[in-house]
Amino acid sequence: MFMTNVSSTPTLTAKIKDNSLGWLGIIRLGLVQTCIGAIVVMTTSTLNRIMVVELSLPALIPGLLVALHYFVQVIRPKMGFISDQGKHKTPWIIGGMSILAIGGVGASLGTALMAMNLILGLVVSFIAFVMIGIGVSISGTSLLALLAKSVNDQRRAAAATIVWLMMIFGFAITSVMIGKLIDPYTPEKVVMIACDVSLIAVLLTVIALYRLEGSVSQYIKNQPEIKKDNTPFKEALAQMWKDNDIRHFTQFIFISMLAFSSQDLILEPFAGIVFNYTVGQTTSLSGLQHSGVLLGMLLVPLSGIGFLRKYVGSLNLWVIYGCIASAIAMAGLCLGGIIGPAWPLNLNVFLLGVANGAFSIAAIGTMMRLAVADGLGKEGVRIGLWGGAQAIAFGLGGLLGAIASDAARLFITDTAHAYSSVFAVEAFLFIVSAKFATRIQR
């Protein structure tokens, strides 16, 4: 294995450490992830609200468009496979960001057109959300592949945390800025804001990536390479699926992300119906959960510092126990549905966020490590496979979570018990995902 070869060669280890991607380089890649997050949140959040509130359209329409952009990302493995055929990831990241930016502008234009011609607006939005899915697939997959092959093993957990926190920052700053600029609402203003956000995102991406890949070329050159051949994509994917670690990690990603995403659309209604929370209180509850996610993400890289590294420095342990802790927290929500308002819901949701944040950021670090475990040359297609599994899980999770809660309320007369039954299924999914995580050997 690659890690064994490096550790047995002190001179090579020192050389790799000197030439791997430093903290500033990691932050530059994080800035690109911020730009991706800025465009995505604009299309999946702001435009969603405009369609439902300002245009009085059924919530199903933006819901299906958002699900569409997730399902399109099934192309991620193919995009990663193609990018692996070349020596550089930078052109793919910039190209994908450009497609994403055009899709973002197109989505805003389609939303504006819906006010005048619903059918035309839907057609434009459909095309735009397909482009958004393609753009995210190309840029996101190539970005993670570049990060995986450029960062040494000691920095992977911290690098994953930095990049993901910067993406969340992109979500937050874009939402705040759009919120201040969009009032009073006009369709023209939405299109103008989308053009500005997309243009800034592309320019910042180009600036952030300028000569970045070249600065770690020596580190990349010193790493072993998987022998390249002319194997077609489908055959290469089939061969990769025979690898136990890759197959188990893919199954882990899909099941854990299915459980993770299916809670989003039902947690706030659950708090409102069962615990009589107001709209403001449920919004605060969501903020509390995100605060927990942030803390969980920070705990993983901090555990690799000093004496803590010996006891809790293993990414695989964080993945396994993070999933188990998530299952316990989901089981707590089950009890909350049975016990009612006396249950400490706020604390339960905060701890759920901590567990979710810990296992997800550890999973990203594990993904980066496993992508280059045998050497370079197939990191793109591997990350593409896992990114595709995550995207499909997110698309299905949101829809199935809402459908399951409606079905449970239809067949179970007690609403609280209906929600509890859904949370029980999600807790079971987290346990299953932890089981798959224990099977990863590399």
Question: How would you sum up this structure, described in words?
Answer:
This protein is an all-alpha fold and 442 residues long. The chain folds into two domains: 11-217, MFS general substrate transporter like domains (Growth Hormone, Chain: A, Up-down Bundle); 233-442, MFS general substrate transporter like domains (Growth Hormone, Chain: A). The protein is built from 20 helices and no strands. The longest helix is centred in the first third of the chain and has 33 residues, at 118-150. Residues 1-18 have low confidence and may be disordered.
Task: Give the gist of this structure.
This protein is mostly helical and 442 residues long. Helices cover 82% and strands 0% of the residues. The longest helix has 33 residues, at 118-150.
Describe this protein with a few key phrases.
Growth Hormone, Chain: A, 442 residues, 2 domains, single chain, disordered N terminus, 20 helices, mainly alpha
